[in-house]
Amino acid sequence: MNDTDGPAGSTGPDGPDGPAGSTGPGQRELPVRTMSRRRLVLRRFLRHRGALLGLLLFTGTVLLAFTSIGFLGLPGWWGQPYQASGVVENGGRMTLHPFPSADLMPSFLDGDGMFVDPSTIRVGAHPFGQDDVGRDYFATTMRGAQISLTIALAVGAVSTLLGTAVGALAGYFRGWVEGTLMQVTDLFLAVPLLVVASVIGRVNDGGPLILALLLGLLTWMSMARLVRGEFLSLREKEFVEAARALGASSGRIIFRHILPNATGTIVVNATLTVALAILLETSVSYLGFGVQPPDTSLGKLISDNQNACLVRPWLFWWPGMFIVAIALSVNFIGDGLRDAFDPQQNRVRA
Amino acid sequence: MVVFVARRLIVSCFVLLAATAAMFTLVAHAGDPLADLRLSTAPNRADLIAHRSEILHLDQSVPQRYAAWLGHASGCLIPGRPCDLGRTVQGQDVATLLGQAIVSTLTLVTGALVLAILLGVGAGVISALRQRTGLDYAVTFSASLFFSLPVFWVAVLLKQFLAIEANDWYADPTVGPLAAAVLSALSGLFWGAVLGGDRARRWLIRFGAASVTFGLLEYLSVTGWFARPALGPGIIAACAFGIAVGVTALVAGPNRRGVLTSALGAATAGSLAQFLVTGSLQQPTWASFPTLLLLGLSAVGVAVLLGWLLGGPDRPAAIRAAVLTALLTGLVMVIDVMLRALPGYSRLVRGRIIATAGSQTPNLDGTFWQTQLDQLTHLVLPTLAIMLISYATYSRYSRASLLDALGQDYVRTARAKGLPERTVILRHALRNALIPVTTLAAVDFGVLIGGAVITEAVFARPGMGALFIQGLLPPLDPNPIMGFFGVVAVSVVVFNLLADIAYAYLDPRIRLG
Fold it and tell me: Is the complex ipTM more than 0.90?
């Protein structure tokens, strides 16, 4: 019912990388500019307001987290290290004043007159305040965001690779391969995610990246099912038949002919997996079975500081805001990608 | 059908076997059950270690332990055999502990799920019917936001901010003019968007709803209603008749005389009955619980009779409407006595009526309704936390599903043959749109039981989640973990099966086989 995107309907799966709309000699010439599928998707994505905002927010968060305190030994522009404790100044209050002080009550109503004073905007020495041993909480939060983002992206990568592989094999080869792989998928779907993730986190003593790998082994199932579905329908298409008739090997058909046409599903679902992963990791870390000290993560920061909630609420607010910002922006990007790849389907609008 | 269920059950058994075996191995390697004793300085340390090793059979290999655990645990699923899930490191029986914990978790999860479905589907349906309006954008944005919220953060927020704010407000429960104005403006916007219509009608609705809300809030505030809330016979009767009309509109359409008469009859009966049953409702004890049940049953019986007598040509619809009206009227009466119990309850808990920890106030010396109220107030926040996240899924899903259905050919056909819009939406579009939602709900129930771990941890509820977390903390306690995992895995498998059967039942195009 959403046919408003113009040439969208004509760009179905059409061969490995063939642009749609190329006209043969027998066809009527139409004055339509041909556009590759990639450009079409990009254009639709860039017109999606929510997705663009999400992309902006996500890039901003990633840049802030990774450049501010440095990563992998590289120095950052924020002067204070996240580990160093120090003197707690002013009760560890935030020194960040993002808004100009202003008074909008006119003086004849007993106000101070209408003014906006931008000189009060400042970042200060500890924009997010300090924790109880005087560590700079901005640096700590950035460190937490780094770890959580890294884990989320790694989980996304692992589960995308694994899920795509399982789904592709099952959907392409069918028969007993499909039976076995889908049975395994159902088995993994039957176990409660958070419960197993907690136990696995308790088993793991190898640091955040191993944790990411293990969590990736628990979140690939929806990808496998979706990719299998795509493969089941794509393998019956004419272009696959043509490739097979020309003597292409199974590997070539999978990688060159079918996989590129399943990109939409894979990219969209990978994005949503990252959003799921950040919530999963922070939840497991909150329970105390995820990232272990001396490392920290956004979830662990919340669990460390939840009792300080009433006296120093900022210790609780900032990591939470970062989790919401990351998860929300990634979800928006995913919704935008879905609409861009598949404008036919009903939009679950962001 | 039978073949399908049987085959699925057999497959499910293998899934459970594999899942528990994998989990058992994982748990066995997750930590040391003797961690605390190894560091202990007690003189009888060796005895303690030997004793605990014997309870947990630590002398055997992991496969042997699993085989033994499986043999005993399978008794829990087969009626007539003893249910033995092993013992904790402290020597308590896990099956007994789980039995107590399951009730608490189920209450929480069921309540949250029902509310989330009602609100989520309602919001999804309204936003689909009012597509591309402000309300639609507000609903979809809030769904995206809730979907991205970490549940532990929300839970702590509710516990540390909302609960304290609400309790502070209850110390002096009045609504100032400014707060009332803001609330009325919101209510005006909401009703304007829900009821819709052309520009003039919408402004009329907005203004009307806002002024009614403002007047009501100020009236209740000035008369001190919030401190001593109650509904009273008049309001109950008004509610009953409102419910009757609403139920009729939803079940059959407002102009079906027989249905409307029977629903109104049920409402009349309910309004009269409140004077008869007030006594038994006011101060019941646990002993009068059967009386309460009997009252509920007789209400249903009277409603069926009324529907039968007054229904005329629409007898089935009339009976349905009358029973629904009777039940909802009963609910209103229960709410009334609950509200009346509130001031007394508030005195018992020193004004902190929204509880933030546990599942009941210890040593509460209250009446029947105060005890019920106490359990409810302990459920409010955890239910809210779980509900918010689930609500997001349901509103997104039902909105997309209804939009999809509204675009189908059969809906166009229904409109073309001149059916009223209400019938088109409720009978043709919504019914089909809700089929996938039922399966989602069934699957979600199993997932939520596992996901309630976090909420239970934040609010210190003594549910299954607490057993699980306690087991995972050092010293590792394998049997509660495995018991919890078993319950969750079985419920996930069973609810997936139910989802498939429900799907086939609701959608005749699906053939199981």
Answer: no
